[in-house]
Structure formats: structure tokens, C-alpha cells
Design a protein that fits this description.
The chain is of the alpha/beta class and 531 residues long. Helix 3 links the parallel strand 8 and strand 9. The protein folds into 3 domains: 91 residues, Urease, subunit C, domain 1 (Roll); 86 residues, Diaminopimelate Epimerase, Chain A, domain 1; 205 residues, TIM Barrel (Alpha-Beta Barrel), CATH 3.20.20.140. 29% of the residues lie in helices and 23% in strands. Strands 1, 2, 3, 4, 5, 20, 21 and 22 form an 8-stranded mixed β-sheet that branches. The chain contains 17 helices and 22 strands. The structure holds zinc ion.
């Protein structure tokens, strides 16, 4: 048989510790040969020289926000800043360049640049003047606003905190300039609405960036109705080249009455876009005390407090929601940062009638109680890991560890424990919260250190994964999350030819994080190449 495309002279990852020298032959979009592929050559065959690099299945990002990422790339982007000063300079330059814009809008700052992780309105006022400004934190769980924005939203010393968020305050009760979680909505609801053209451009920008990371499919972790229109429009025009599952946002201020709307939205699938998942956000994040924990938080002096975080959805109601979604064939995609959120999700899955569907998944898994590690396999829940966070970078050492009790601190991101207990691991970046660079994430999964902080001790080294486990997570594991494991996620004859080619083979040593993608291929067609 002759091939349309041959990737040759590489090392093929086939799911084991022992990658196979050689290449991959492709015909009609499917893999027809693996390893020795010389016999598939013909004068009409296109060839790519992998030059000794690792050939993996195309990566599948099991938790990512391509539209908000794409949109933020096009607005006031602070992702390249490394300090508060640099961020302020970028905001100032953006404000100057867009004199006519009513709002200064964007994101990408890091909590670690600011004392207590909370940037002030006062600092922002210096570079924005009287125009309202709203800048999201890199992780999307907080917003930095200026005085003009606070005024426009009528937020003052007398404004109460919403149920699902907190207004950071000065000693006299006036708003300080940082809004946490649901409190962000007080300002963000005043922003001009993005148009359909904005969202379509954002999706194309997001897709292009993800292709450059070797990503050929993903689960969008929060599809809002306006964003859904962009997916459907691009899919209709053949411009959505990735394979996408959409997770529809569960509105926490509504109860079961929203299910009809979810069913209506699910019926609007398009080629390459299937909105079959529902995102249930059960808690917030540790850094602002909104992650729901089984053990109380510590205060700034290290004393135990009464605070155990917030249940965004009550545990009893959650069981009912999950039972109905499961019966209707929806997948549940849980945001579970803290140990109590993890327990509630597992309890809800445990209560489902047999036979259990085995693709509901829990994302983030920062603190998992030891008693719950083995339950993932029992209830058939996939562990959706954001590996980049499992290390001692400043957000961990300065804003997380001091505020966790000892049990929580010792049970963070227990990926190897979950794998040993039989759980299927999937991997997702949560971009634009953190980078979508897959090898950078895998490096942390394997070393439990970040390349910028190698001198620091690893975070609980017994929880490190092997390179093979991490690669399998980003390919076959995430394919299981999207229920496409019979089509993609392994390099095997008969599978779709979705491939990512790297410039080197990380199995032979060296820094995994320095491995770069040279080609991304979907169904035998090159969608990204550095050459
Ligand atoms: Zn997310």
C-alpha cells in the first residue's frame, strides 16, 4: 500500500516506555504503518523528516479555554509581564494606543507580583486615568479594577460581598481594587458585549496557538452561548480543524430548570464540535480561600481559622444534578480544587445507578484527601490533571502553602497515587490560566519542579509520573475524556493520523521542558509547522 504522507526518521511513542525508531505512514487520513515505513513510499508521497524527534499522537487538552485565551491575546495582554511594574507599563502603553476605547480590558497578571496577591486600584489609576479598567488574573479567579470601574459599578464601603465571591477591602471597608470570584461580575457585566466577529477571531487565534503546542483536540471547559455560535460558525465553514468537546456552563444561580436549555444547546452539534459535557464549578481556589477544604485554612500568622472555603454548589443538590445529567447522557466536568469539593463530586458519582458511565471527570485536584484517592477508580471518574501547578513556584510557596493546614499541604496533586490506585489520568493546561505548552507541563509532572525554580525542592516527589504516564495522559487519557479513544490518542494502524512531532526525543534525557513542537498534523494534514 502506498502512503499519502510519511513521517520518517523519528522515534514513535506507542504508549510504552520503549518508543520505536522509525516513522508513521498515513493514507486517507489514517495511520497505515508504524516503525519501518520505507515500503509505503511512492513518487506522490509527501514526506516529513522527524530528524530523530519524538512522534506522539496529537495532544488532547482536557481542560482549556481557547476563546478567552484567544480574546485576551488580542486585548490588553499581561501574559508576558513578570513583575507588577512591567504589568503597569503594559497597561499604560495599551491605554495610550487605544485612546478611543471606552474600557481598558484584558488580563494575565499573577498574584505573586503583588503583596498578599491583591493589586490595588490606586496603582492602576496611575496608568489608566479616568477610563474604567478591568484586568483578569492569569487564573481567571480574580480581577484588578481601577477607581473608575468601581465607581461605575457602584461598589463602595457599603456594598456587601456576593454569595460566591469577595470584594477585597481597605481597613476602612472601602474597595481596594481586587475582586475575587463572583465579585468580578459586579464590574464585568458592565463591559461592552463582544460581537460574534470578536468570538470567531478569538477562536481562530486560540486554535492557531494550540496547534503550535501540538494540540489537535480539546475539551473547552466553559462554553458560553455566544462562544458556542463561534464554534458552530467556524465548524460550518470548515475552519474548525480541531476535534472539540464543549462543556456547557452550569449556572450556579439557577437550579434544575436550566436543563432544558442545556438539552437544546446539545442538539446543536456541528462537525468537530460536540457540546456533550456540563461544567460544574464546585469551589474556587486556595489562594483566595474559596477552595472548599475538609481542613480549615490558616491565617497570615499561621493560626487555624474557622474558614473551610465555599461550596459553590451544595452537596445534596449536586447529587440530584449529577443524577439527572448522567441519565440524560451528559458528561460531568467538575471543577474541584479542594478536598471537600473532590469528596462531593465523588459522592455524587458514587450515588449513580449501575452500570456507570466511565468518563465523568474531576479537574484540578489540588488537595485530595488520602481516603478519596482510591475512589476515582471505584466510581469510574477520570482524574483531569493540570500538571504545571504541581511544583513550588511562588504562587505555591507564598500564597498557598502558608494558608493550608498540614494534611492539605501534604496531599496536593497526588497524580502518581491516583494512577497507582487505578484511576485513568487525563491532562489539561487550563490555558490561558497557565501555558498550553505540553512538554513544559509534562516536565513538571515528571520532576515536580518548574524549570525556573529548579533549585527548590520538588513538591512531594513520590507523586511524580513517568514520562510515559504523562504522555499517555495527554493523549489516550484525554481522548477518553472526549470519548474518542477508539479514533485518536494512540499511534496504531487504523487510528486517525493526528500527530505531534517534536524536535528531540525526551526519553533519552535532557530537559523535557525544552522539547519543542515542529509539526502538528490532523487527519494526515499539516496544521502547524516551524519550517
Ligand atoms: Zn479552567
Amino acid at each position: 500500500m502506498k502512503a499519502d504522507l510519511i513521517v520518517r526518521d523519528g522515534v514513535v511513542f506507542t504508549g510504552t516506555d520503549d518508543p520505536k525508531p522509525g516513522g508513521v505512514a498515513v493514507r486517507n487520513g489514517r495511520i497505515v504503518g508504524v516503525g519501518d515505513v520505507k515500503g509505503f513510499d511512492s513518487p506522490r508521497t509527501e514526506t516529513i523528516d522527524a530528524d530523530g524527534g519524538l512522534i506522539t499522537p496529537g495532544f488532547i487538552d482536557a481542560h482549556v479555554h481557547p476563546l478567552s485565551g484567544g480574546l485576551k491575546l488580542a486585548h490588553c495582554s499581561l501574559y508576558d509581564a513578570t513583575t507588577a511594574q512591567e504589568a503597569l507599563e503594559l497597561v499604560g502603553a495599551y491605554a495610550k494606543a487605544r485612546q478611543g476605547a471606552e474600557w481598558i480590558w484584558g488580563g494575565g497578571w499573577s498574584m505573586e507580583w503583588f503583596p498578599r496577591g491583591t493589586p490595588s486600584a490606586e496603582a492602576l489609576d496611575q496608568v489608566t486615568g479616568d477610563r474604567p479598567a478591568l484586568l483578569y488574573n492569569k487564573d481567571g479567579h480574580g480581577a484588578w479594577v481601577n477607581t473608575a470601574a468601581l465607581r461605575r459599578a457602584h461598589i463602595s464601603a457599603t456594598t456587601g460581598d456576593p454569595n460566591d465571591g469577595r470584594i477585597e477591602r481597605l481597613d476602612d471597608g472601602r474597595p481596594q481594587g481586587t475582586l475575587h470570584e463572583g465579585a468580578m461580575d459586579l464590574v464585568s457585566e458592565l463591559l461592552p458585549k463582544f460581537t460574534r466577529t470578536d468570538w470567531e477571531a478569538a477562536l481562530l487565534a486560540g486554535q492557531k496557538y494550540l496547534f503550535s503546542c501540538g494540540i489537535t483536540g480539546w475539551q473547552d471547559a466553559d462554553v458560553q452561548p455566544a462562544q458556542e455560535e463561534a464554534y458552530i460558525a467556524l465548524a460550518g465553514r470548515g475552519e474548525l480543524k480541531a476535534s472539540v468537546v464543549g462543556a456547557l456552563w452550569w449556572e450556579r444561580d439557577q437550579a434544575l430548570e436550566q436543563i432544558d436549555a442545556l438539552l437544546g444547546r446539545r442538539a446543536r452539534f456541528a462537525p468537530g464540535y460536540r457540546p456533550t459535557s456540563v461544567k460544574l464549578m464546585l469551589d474556587g481556589i486556595v489562594e483566595n480561600y474559596t477552595a472548599a477544604l475538609l481542613e480549615p485554612y490558616r491565617d497570615y500568622e499561621g493560626n487555624e481559622t474557622e474558614n473551610t472555603g465555599i461550596d459553590f454548589i451544595d452537596g445534596t443538590l449536586l447529587k440530584e444534578i449529577v443524577r439527572i445529567l448522567d441519565r440524560l447522557g451528559f458528561q460531568c466536568h467538575f471543577h474541584t480544587l479542594g478536598s471537600r469539593a473532590v469528596r462531593h463530586a465523588l459522592d455524587a458519582l458514587d450515588a449513580l445507578p449501575a452500570p456507570r458511565r466511565r468518563s465523568h471527570h474531576l479537574a484540578h485536584l489540588q488537595v485530595v484527601d488520602r481516603a478519596d484517592v482510591h475512589r476515582f477508580a471505584e466510581v469510574g471518574a477520570i482524574a483531569n490533571c493540570q500538571a504545571l501547578w504541581a511544583c513550588r513556584e511562588p504562587q505555591m510557596t507564598d500564597l498557598t502553602l502558608p494558608f493550608l493546614g498540614p494534611t492539605s499541604a501534604d496531599n496536593q496533586y497526588p497524580f502518581a497515587g491516583l494512577a497507582r490506585a487505578g484511576a485513568t489520568l487525563a491532562m489539561g493546561s487550563d490555558w490561558p490560566v497557565s501555558t498550553a505548552n505540553v512538554y513544559e507541563q509534562i516536565d513538571v509532572a515528571v520532576t515536580r519542579t518548574h524549570r525556573e525554580y529548579r533549585e527548590r525542592p520538588p513538591l512531594d516527589l513520590v507523586q511524580s509520573l513517568t514520562l510515559t504516564q504523562a504522555l499517555n495522559g495527554f493523549t489516550n487519557g484525554s481522548a477518553q475524556v472526549n470519548r474518542v479513544e477508539h479514533e485518536v490518542g494512540r499511534i496504531k494502524v487504523g487510528m486517525e493520523a493526528d500527530l505531534a512531532i517534536a524536535d528531540r526525543n525526551p526519553f533519552v534525557g535532557g530537559s523535557i521542558a525544552d522539547t519543542k513542537i515542529t509539526h502538528t498534523i490532523i487527519g494526515g494534514t499539516v496544521v502547524f509547522s516551524t519550517s
